[in-house]
UniProtKB/TrEMBL annotation, chain B:
Gene3D superfamilies: STAS domain. InterPro entries: MlaB-like_STAS, STAS_dom_sf. Residues 11-88 form the MlaB-like STAS domain. This is STAS domain-containing protein. It comes from the Bacteria.
Length: 753, 97
C-alpha cells in the first residue's frame, strides 16, 4: 500500500480517537468514574501516539507521551481526576487535535501553549502522587520514558543530577532482577509492518537476555501462510530497568501480541531451564548498522545511547521529585495488574460494529444517479398514463411497483449520507472551553440528541454558523460569574445544544441561561446604525431579529472572540443557504434560545405540485397543514390589501402566492383558487392561495443558486416528470414577505446582484 | 555457486526479507521442492521473523524428505538475527569441505 494512503487512514483514525478522547474526558468531567471510560481515554491517546510514532511525527508523539503518562496516573488511581485535572486534560486534548491537524495539513501550532500544557501535565503526573508508602525510593517508581522518541526538548528538560545521587539511593545494582517474558505475536503484528525481530532486538538492549523460540505451532511448508505468525518466544531477561521498560518495548505492538511478563525468582539466564535457551550475544552492533532500516528503526539506532541517558535523566528527575514531595508511587505490582486488566478490556472494546470507509464522491455519484432514476421513473409513468386511455393496464401496476422501489432505493441511499451530528457537537465543546477561558467565564456545555442523523452536507456546513453562535452565546449571552451570582444564578453558565427531528426536518436549538437580549441596547444600536427610524414601533420579536442585520453588534468593545459585527448575519445566511431557518426567542434575565430548523437532506423533498398564474410550483409537503377550498363567505377584507380567511372560527391571513412572487399584478379571486394552510417556522399559520393543485410527488432538488442565482421566495428548483422545470417555494420567505406585501428589499437586492 | 551435486539447487536470498518478501520466499521454496537446496544468505541485510519462519518450515520439510537443506553462505546480519530470535541454524550450516 502507498504510504500516503496509510497515513491518510491514520489521520482518519486519529479523528475518531480524538472524538473518543474528548467524549471520554467529558464523561469523566461529569463524574463518571468507570474504569472503562478511563481506559477508553488512555487508549485513544495511546493509539494516536503509536501511529504517530510509526510515521515519525515527533511533536505529536512527544506530546501524546506526556499526556499518556498523566492519564496512566489516573488509570492507576494515583491521580484523582477532579475538575482541575480534567481542565488541563481537556486542553491537552485540544492541543493534541491541533498537533494532529498540523501534522496532516502542515501549519504550525502554538508552541508556547503546548509547552505550558506539557509542564502542567508533568506536574500532575509527578507532583500529585499519593502519600508515601515506603521510605526507600527505588528505580522503577515512575514510568521511565524509555520509549519516548528522541528530540524531546519539551518533554525532558535538563535536570541537574549526578550519578552519585542515585548511587546512594540504589546501592545494589549488581544483582539485577530477572524477568520471564512470554511473547506471542499475532499475525496482525506483521501485517502492520512491525516485526518480532525488531521488538526482540530492542528487548535485548535492556539487559542480558536468553531466548527460546517456540516453533511447535509451525505447520508444514506447503500448508503454511507465509504472512501468519507461528513463532512465539520465551525470554528471560536480566535487567535493572524495570518492567515498565520492558512493556514500553512492546508498546506499539501491545494489541497485536500476547505478552506475559513475570518477575522470576532466580535468574535462568545461563540456560539451566528445561527449555533450551539460547543466550543472545550482547554485541548486536552488526544489526544496528543494517542499512535500509525504516525511519523508526534508524531513530532507534540513533537514540540508543540517548535512550539510556534519557531514562537515567528521567529516573533522576523522578528521584528529585520524590525527594521534593517526599511522596512515592504505589507498588509496581498493583500497577501491573491494572495494566494487564486494561489490556484485556482494550481488546474487547476494539471489536466494534463493522463499517467501511467510502469515498464521499462515490456516494454522491450514486445519489445523483438515483435522483435521475427517480425523475426518469416519473417521466415514464407520466407518459404511460397519458397514452393509456383505459388506465388499467398491467404496465400501470408495474410502474407503481417501480415507483415504490425507486423510492426505497432513494431512501436507503440517503441513509448512507446521513451522519450523526455528534462530531460537530463535540467540536463545539472545545470552542466553549476556549471562549470561556478567554472571557474568564465558567461555562458548561450540555448537548442532547447527538445521535440525531442528518445529511453529511448539512453537517459539514453546520459547524461554522454553530461556532459563531456558540461564541456569541458565551461572549454576549452569558454574564460574568460575579454578575450571575448577583442575579441569584449559578456562577457557572449553561449552554445547551440540542438536536432533534421534527416533522421531517432537523431542529437544532442553542439555549443559554444568560441575561437575554438587551432589547433597549439593540434598538438604540439599530437607530445609531440607521437600520431603523428612531420612532419605529417594533415588536419584541422584531427587535430581537435586528441582530441578524449585517454589521450589527451590541458588544461595547470589540473582543477577539466576537463583536466585529460579522456574526449573526453570516449565521443567518449560511443557515438559509442550507434551506434552513433561524429564530430567536429571548427572555430578559433568563437567556436566549436560538432555534435552527434545517432540512434533513438537500437532495429530495416531498412536495405538492401546484399551479400559480400558469406557473408550476412545488410546495414542500412538510410545511402544509391542510388544503381547503375557500368559500366567498369565509373571506374577509382587512385593511387596504390584506385579506383573512376564517377557518373553523379562527382567522388566518390569506396570502396570494402569485401576487407575492409578482407573477400577476392584481390579487386573484380567492374563490377560484385553493388555499394551502401552512405553518411557518416562526409560528403562526398562513393560508397560501394557489390556483390549482396538480398532485403530490417526490421531487429531486436541483439547486437554483448553483445553477442560476438566488431568487427571493424560491428555495430551489426541480425537474418534473414531463421534463419541465418547476420552482420549489420557500414557504417561510413567502410568509415573511406577506407581512410587508413584497419580499424583503435586502433579498430583492441580493437577487438583482 | 557451483553445485556439488547435480540435483542441488541454490536459492539466493534477497537483501531485505521483510513482510513483502515472505510470500515470495515461500513460493520460491515450494518451487524447489524435491531437490537438495543450498541457501545463499550472503546478501541478507535484514530479515524479519516471517521469513525465518518460512525458512525453518522449509528446513523441516526438506528434512522429512531426507534431502539436504543447508545455508551455504550467510551474512553477519543473518546470523545475528537468527541468534537474536533464538533460532538455531548451526545444524543447517554448510560444513566447510
Amino acid at each position: 500500500m502507498d504510504m500516503n494512503e496509510i497515513k491518510e487512514i491514520f489521520f482518519q483514525e486519529c479523528e475518531e480517537q480524538l472524538a473518543e478522547l474528548e467524549s471520554g474526558l467529558l464523561k469523566l468531567n461529569d463524574g463518571d468514574r468507570d474504569p472503562e471510560t478511563v481506559n477508553a481515554v488512555f487508549r485513544a491517546v495511546h493509539s494516536i501516539k503509536g501511529g504517530a510514532g510509526a510515521f515519525g511525527l515527533d511533536d505529536l508523539v512527544s506530546f501524546a507521551h506526556v499526556f499518556e503518562t498523566t492519564l496512566d496516573c489516573v488509570r492507576s488511581n494515583r491521580l484523582e481526576p477532579n475538575q482541575d485535572v480534567l481542565k488541563v486534560m481537556l486542553k491537552s486534548a485540544d492541543v493534541l487535535a491541533d498537533l494532529t491537524n498540523a501534522a496532516r495539513d502542515g501549519g504550525s501550532v502554538d508552541q508556547a501553549r503546548s509547552r505550558q500544557l506539557i509542564k502542567e501535565l508533568e506536574a500532575l503526573a509527578s507532583g500529585e502522587l499519593p502519600q508515601a508508602t515506603a521510605a526507600e525510593p527505588t528505580f522503577k517508581a515512575a514510568p521511565t520514558p524509555v520509549a519516548a522518541p528522541p528530540v524531546n526538548e519539551e518533554g525532558f528538560q535538563p535536570v541537574a543530577f549526578s550519578f552519585e545521587d542515585f548511587e546512594a539511593d540504589e546501592p545494589a545494582v549488581i544483582e539485577a532482577p530477572c524477568y520471564e517474558i512470554v511473547f506471542r505475536p499475532k499475525s496482525e503484528l506483521y501485517a502492520k509492518g512491525n516485526d518480532a525481530t525488531l521488538l526482540l532486538r530492542d528487548l535485548s538492549r535492556l539487559g542480558e537476555m536468553s531466548i527460546h523460540c517456540d516453533m511447535d505451532g509451525m505447520p508444514p511448508l506447503d500448508r503454511m501462510n507465509p504472512e501468519a505468525a507461528y513463532f512465539s518466544w520465551k525470554i528471560s531477561l536480566k535487567t535493572d530497568k524495570g518492567e515498565e521498560a520492558i512493556r514500553s518495548v512492546f508498546e506499539f505492538a501491545e494489541w497485536d501480541c500476547d505478552l506475559d511478563i513475570a518477575l522470576a525468582g532466580g535468574c535462568a539466564v545461563d540456560a539451566s531451564e528445561e527449555l533450551p535457551m539460547q543466550p543472545v550475544p550482547f554485541d548486536l552492533s552488526m544489526l544496528d548498522e543494517a542499512p535500509a532500516g525504516s525511519a523508526e528503526e534508524e531513530e532507534q539506532f540513533a537514540s540508543r545511547d540517548r535512550d539510556a541517558a534519557v531514562s537515567a535523566a528521567g529516573t533522576a528527575s523522578n528521584v528529585l521529585q520524590m525527594a521534593q514531595s517526599s511522596t512515592r508511587a504505589p507498588a509496581e505490582a498493583q500497577r501491573n495488574t491494572t495494566a494487564a486488566a486494561s489490556a484485556a478490556a482494550q481488546q474487547a472494546a476494539s471489536a466494534a460494529t463493522p463499517t467501511i470507509r467510502v469515498d464521499l464522491d462515490r456516494v454522491d455519484r450514486l445519489i445523483n444517479l438515483v435522483g435521475e432514476l427517480v425523475i426518469n421513473q416519473a417521466m415514464l409513468s407520466q407518459s404511460v398514463i397519458e397514452n393509456d386511455t383505459n388506465g388499467t393496464s398491467s404496465i400501470n401496476m408495474g410502474l407503481e411497483e417501480l415507483q415504490q422501489l425507486t423510492r426505497e432505493i432513494q431512501d436507503s441511499v440517503m441513509a448512507i449520507r446521513a451522519q450523526p451530528v455528534k462530531p460537530v457537537f463535540q467540536r463545539m465543546s472545545r470552542i466553549v472551553r476556549e471562549i470561556a477561558d478567554m472571557t474568564g467565564k465558567s461555562v458548561r456545555l450540555v448537548t442532547e440528541g447527538e445521535n440525531t442523523e442528518v445529511d453529511k452536507t448539512v453537517i459539514d456546513k453546520l459547524a461554522e454558523p454553530l461556532t459563531h453562535m456558540i461564541r456569541n452565546a458565551v461572549d454576549h449571552g452569558l454574564e460574568t460569574p460575579e454578575k450571575r451570582l448577583a442575579a441569584g444564578k449559578n456562577a457557572e453558565g449553561t449552554v445547551r445544544l440540542t438536536a432533534k427531528h421534527r416533522s421531517g426536518r432537523i431542529v437544532i436549538e442553542l439555549a443559554d441561561d444568560g441575561a437575554g437580549i438587551n432589547r433597549e441596547k439593540v434598538r438604540q444600536k439599530a437607530i445609531d446604525n440607521d437600520l431603523i427610524a428612531a420612532d419605529a414601533n417594533l415588536s419584541d420579536e422584531e427587535v430581537d431579529n435586528l441582530i441578524f442585520h449585517a454589521g450589527f453588534s451590541t458588544a461595547d468593545k470589540i473582543s477577539d472572540i466576537s463583536g466585529r459585527g460579522v456574526g449573526m448575519d453570516v449565521v443567518k445566511r449560511s443557515i438559509q443557504a442550507l434551506g434552513g431557518r433561524i429564530n430567536i426567542s429571548s427572555k430578559p434575565g433568563q437567556g436566549s434560545i436560538f432555534t435552527m430548523s434545517l432540512p434533513l437532506t438537500l437532495a429530495v423533498l416531498d412536495g405538492m405540485v401546484v399551479t400559480v398564474a400558469n406557473q408550476t410550483l412545488v410546495v414542500p409537503l412538510t410545511a402544509i397543514v391542510e388544503t381547503l377550498q375557500p368559500e366567498a363567505a369565509a373571506i374577509h377584507s382587512f385593511g387596504a390589501s390584506q385579506r383573512l380567511i376564517s377557518i373553523r372560527n379562527s382567522f388566518c391571513p390569506l396570502v396570494d402566492v402569485g401576487r407575492i412572487l409578482n407573477f400577476r399584478a392584481t390579487q386573484a379571486n380567492p374563490v377560484e383558487g385553493v388555499a394551502l394552510l401552512v405553518e411557518s417556522e416562526g409560528g403562526g399559520q398562513r393560508a397560501l392561495m394557489v390556483d390549482a393543485i396538480q398532485g403530490q410527488r417526490q421531487v429531486v432538488i436541483k439547486s437554483l443558486e448553483a445553477n442560476y442565482t438566488h431568487v427571493p421566495g424560491i428555495a430551489a428548483a426541480t425537474i418534473l416528470g414531463d421534463g419541465r422545470v418547476a420552482l420549489i417555494l420557500d414557504v417561510d420567505a413567502i410568509v415573511a414577505a406577506s407581512r410587508g406585501q413584497t419580499l424583503k428589499p435586502e433579498m430583492s437586492l441580493a437577487a438583482a446582484g | 555457486m557451483a553445485s556439488k551435486k547435480t540435483a542441488q539447487k541454490t536459492l539466493r536470498l534477497a537483501p531485505v526479507l521483510d513482510l513483502n518478501e515472505a510470500t515470495a520466499l515461500h513460493e520460491k521454496l515450494l518451487a524447489l521442492k524435491g531437490s537438495a537446496v543450498a541457501i545463499d544468505a550472503s546478501a541478507v541485510e535484514r530479515i524479519g521473523a516471517l521469513c525465518v519462519q518460512v525458512l525453518i518450515a522449509g528446513a523441516r520439510n526438506w528434512e522429512e524428505q531426507q534431502l539436504s537443506f543447508t545455508f551455504a553462505k550467510v551474512s553477519d546480519a543473518f546470523v545475528k538475527t537468527t541468534q537474536l530470535i533464538g533460532v538455531d541454524i548451526d545444524p543447517l550450516m554448510a560444513k566447510e569441505i
